[in-house]
Structure of Sulfate transport system permease protein CysT:
Amino acid sequence: MSTTVAGLSSASRNKPGKRVLPGFALSLGVSLLFISLILILPITGLIVQTSGMSVAEYWAVISDERVVASYKVTLWAAAIASLFNGVVGLLLAWVLVRYEFWGKRIVDALMDLPFALPTAVAGITLAALFSEGGWYGEYLAALGLEVAFTPLGIVVAMAFTSLPFVVRTVQPVLEDLAPEDEEAAVSMGASDWTVFRRILFPSLWPALMTGIALSFTRSLGEFGAVIFIAGNMPYVSEITSLMIFIRLQEFDYAAASAIASVVLMASLVLLLAINLWQARYLRRLHGR
């Protein structure tokens, strides 16, 4: 009987065109339809909006002095926020994976709060906390540090909204790492720093870089949380998303689409680069 079943299974596996999951064609069709409607169609609309502009007009819009200033503010704020999240996110993932403590499930659930919280609510909350009379702002003001309505507020808002990307990217990799490797290294006299540098970090590095890149790209497009705390001063604390919104308020849809296309291209190039680097790094790590 078992031979018969094995023979039937083998025949099923060898049958041309047979798929493992039933309804594969339907699932694939729905997936492609979803990708087309949610991802490709909006991008196509962006291209259509800018297609009516000449190259000179497109360049004039995206290289406008005020817009370029917004690129710079967005880039340096997103870079600082994502690097900060890289350090803090790694520590949070480490604590959640390697330690048991009371309230761990609550802390773990709170990691997703920035995903669930509307960005406008996050912006208002952060502005209230870090304003001069706020809970945090009162003490920071005594130290001569102003956060709300300054460029530093942009970094705080970006770090808050993009922190889960690092935690949730690193956490599964840490869970898969066997503690026995670290214990063996410690038993052979390796220091904590050596264990982290030689055993943990090579495995964590691709996931950490991916998390930081996702945090960076998320910060590039952040709008709701930033505008309430940034102050939005031209050439000082205006972000690119705000410039897109300003052009939309002026009913200049082509200019808004042109600026948005710059953000879109930057995000796509960064994600493609990090995926290529990650694939190459993993091949080298596994000796392939």
